[in-house]
Design brief:
Elements (H helix, E strand, L loop, with lengths): L8 H10 L5 E7 L5 E7 L3 H7 L1 E4 L25 E6 L5 E2 L7 E9 L10 H14 L3 E6 L1 E6 L29 H5 L2 H13 L4 E6 L5 E6 L5 H21 L3 E3 L15 E6 L17 H21 L21 E3 L6 E3 L9 E3 L8 H17 L25 H10 L1 H7 L1 H19 L4 H7 L4
Parallel strand pairs: 1-6, 13-14
Antiparallel strand pairs: 1-2, 3-4, 4-6, 5-6, 7-12, 8-10, 8-11, 9-10, 12-15, 14-15
Helix pairs in contact: 1-2, 3-8, 5-6, 7-8, 7-9, 8-10, 9-11, 10-11
Length: 460
Amino acid sequence: MISPSGSTPQEAIDFLAAHPEIEAVDIVLHDANGIGRGKIIRRHELLSIYEGGRHMPISILGLDICGEDVHETGLIWDQGDGDLRAWPIPGTLVPLHNTTPPRAEVFMSLYTLEGAPMTSDPRHALQRQVDAMAAEGLYPAGAFELEFFLLANERDGNGRVQPARDVLDGRASHKTEVYSVDHLHGMLPLFSDIYKGAELAGIKAETMISEYAPGQYELTLHYRENVMQAADDLMRLKRIVRAQARAHGVTACFMAKPIEQYAGSGMHFHVSLCDRDGQNVFVEAVEGDYNDNILHALGGMRETMGESMLVFAPHANSWRRFSNQSYAPVSPSWGVNNRSVALRIPAGSIKARRIEHRPAGVDANPYLVGATILAAIRHGMANRIDPGPETTGNGYDADDNLNIPGDWKEAIKAAQASEFLKSALGEDMHRTFTAVKAAEYARVARTISDVDFDLYLYTV
């Protein structure tokens, strides 16, 4: 059977010939939460996957954050939990750094047995929007920023997480250390392994920054001409960071808000559009006189942000990240060279004109984030939506919230009712995603937390 993903057996043949040391391969596809699901196969099995795909149960895309079935997705007993076929994504077969025995990794995507895209696969949701833009003569480019914490494996005396000690010499710091270069030096052995893993994977990982909380870092990624590749980069880099941190005896944390008194971790998405000639359509003729394309794109992103917030903040913990002056703006404001707004036009050369979308947390699924933002841009440009006045000064003072949900429960209800989000993700992906979130909300709501005992055990 010809692979519907475009992969060919020759890719596997060439890879195995070039890497005789590889003994096993992680085959990974991503569910609604962005969690890698799949199998580890042996070397001799790889070619057969490129020749005929690999059967996977349909329920693999209907799992909650704990890896348990969510029946409301309609992917379990409604369809008999039958097998579909996963196929390799061309260009994603790469060796993994620092593995014993040596392993490789390949990303997969799910298709029906006849070769049609399985429409609850997040990767297909993003591809739908990329294809729709291509039909309009537009080609989105972009990059995601990766913020994360490096934490000690042990909790402190109060049971809370704490920043990891430097892997170089064990030195501890509980200071914010924002932009401290010397502070980065203590983690250089770990960072070197992260960069090596990224290099083997063909990812152009760039600047490392000590971010705005103890133990928090940011790693920037090279801008990609294809937003699908940008999302793949982010997914793969999270796996690289997590694996290399574990090898160095610390924990890489991608929760949105692991430490209550400090800023959380975002996944800012920089996006621009090119036409068929490769010209950036967001570029203005006179610097600062922003053209209709970028203004209408901003208008679409502002108008749809409220009903899309579940994509950007998909978990209970995600909503703890949004607090005043924490660099996580939730009001759909836009501005120029202003980090207090949700939608920022960065300073710099107008040839690289782009929009930085700032609400999404690092716990969000970049395929769904990308699909939602591209759909919002298309909506804004097609309907010539005015973004309203630019926000200057403190964006946290903006009072026009355009029906932004106040919490996770409201976000789930807004997403369930949203015709825009159903169109952006596709009907099946929308049903799967919102059903998974509703099931997770029910799990959290019935859980008795330590906060309950602390506040009420001896007092009421």
